[in-house]
Design a protein that fits this description.
This protein has about 375 residues and is an all-alpha fold. About 60% of the residues lie in helices and about 0% in strands. Helix 7 (about 250-275) packs across helix 9 and helix 7 (about 250-275) crosses helix 11.
């Protein structure tokens, strides 16, 4: 590269004196000196690290400095005689136009604690369901059996649909729905014996129905079908069996009230005071404080219900029933959370705004039903 690429002949303030020659920087002086030959033969001038003239605004020289900054806000290259460790970083420069560093900015305000659900929709749906249940429960008992049957069939549909979508498990819905409805009715008409017979026939129907399809996946499909038959309709049958007693409507009302109060106590106390996780790998939202709230609320409600609603019941029996309800409802909620985590879903459905699906409301009721039925039989008879 020769000096012609640097532009016009040297002017005042150029990097080297004009009288430097081609031999080690020395050129002959006097009128005999040929300026043209000097331009062609003298070496390229050495570019200093910090130019004495032009600086960064000189485009040509700025392009020749391969190690220097390309823009005005960059830090100049460290001169060879300067220790790089002593150089002040660019983000610590005293430039008044630089924005405040992130370390100096105030920390953002912590987000408000959210309840995690649409409370308006949840309360509205809960009140509506409660009105339907109470009306059917105290007007015509058979109508309430119909409500249980509808809930069972919808719950089976939600569970089998999620199994097919997420895991490819095809539990046969038709024999499950027919057998589940028969199971609830048999439990109401013939008691526990009728419920067990209907359960056995439903399992057999699942095995036979699945034989009409290819054998691949047969074992997992029928296993899921038998599990669904036991998990939803068989456990729901104990609610129908509670209804057969003389004070059956009040027994079912006590069962529903204790389950709802337990869930409400866990939700309210856990949302306000919850700090210690109960089962973080299963349900991160549940806390030990919420469990204590569920126990306290359910025991108080149990004592009141047994004292004033159940024939021959006493308050201390209500404390035991409330304690058992809080434990079984929590375990049932955790059990369905395990299923949903395995399936990789948040809710089983979307039929109930603010709640999710039918199964998201039955999760704590289903395992609680046999517990309450058994304790009521032991305390006050059937």
């Amino acid at each position: 590269m020769n000096d012609s690429s640097w532009g016009a002949p040297p002017e005042a303030g150029y990097w080297g004196p004009p009288d430097q020659g081609p031999v080690q920087g020395a050129a002959p002086a006097g009128p005999a000196y040929d300026a043209h030959n000097a331009q062609q033969t003298r070496p390229m001038p050495i570019v200093p690290d910090v130019p004495a003239h032009g600086g960064d605004q000189d485009d040509d020289r700025g392009a020749a400095r391969t190690g220097g900054p390309l823009f005005r806000d960059e830090t100049p290259r460290t001169p060879p005689h300067q220790d790089p460790s002593s150089q002040v970083p660019s983000h610590q420069s005293q430039n008044p136009q630089e924005p405040m560093s992130s370390a100096a900015q105030p920390a953002p305000a912590p987000p408000k604690k959210s309840a995690g659900r649409d409370l308006g929709a949840a309360i509205g749906v809960g009140v509506g369901l409660g009105a339907v249940i109470v009306a059917s429960l105290f007007v015509v008992k058979a109508a309430f059996v119909g409500v249980i049957t509808v809930a069972v069939v919808v719950g089976l549909w939600e569970l089998t649909s999620r199994l097919a979508e997420q895991k490819g498990i095809k539990a046969p819905l038709v024999p499950l729905a027919v057998g589940g409805a028969a199971m609830v009715i048999a439990g109401y008409v013939r008691g526990a014996e009728g419920a067990w017979v209907a359960m056995a026939l439903t399992a057999l129907a699942v095995l036979v129905w699945r034989m009409t399809e290819p054998p691949e996946g047969y074992l997992k499909d029928v296993t899921a079908g038998v599990f669904a038959a036991f998990y939803i309709p068989f456990l729901a049958t104990f609610v129908a069996m509670m209804l057969t007693a003389d004070d059956g409507a009040r027994r079912v009302l006590t069962f529903l009230l204790l389950a709802v109060v337990s869930d409400t106590g866990a939700y309210a106390v856990g949302w306000r005071f919850g700090k210690h996780k109960l089962a973080p790998r299963i349900s991160p939202g549940k806390t030990r404080e919420g469990l204590l709230g569920a126990l306290a609320f359910a025991m108080v409600a149990g004592a009141l219900c047994m004292q004033f609603l159940i024939d021959d019941g006493t308050w201390w029996q209500g404390l035991i029933i409330g304690l058992a309800v809080a434990a079984s409802a929590t375990l049932g909620d955790l059990g369905e959370s395990m299923i949903k985590r395995d399936l990789g879903i948040k809710d089983m459905g979307t039929l109930l705004p603010g709640h999710g699906g039918i199964m998201d409301r039955l999760d704590s009721l289903l395992p609680t039903a046999p517990v309450v039925w058994l304790l009521l039989v032991l305390f006050v008879g059937s």
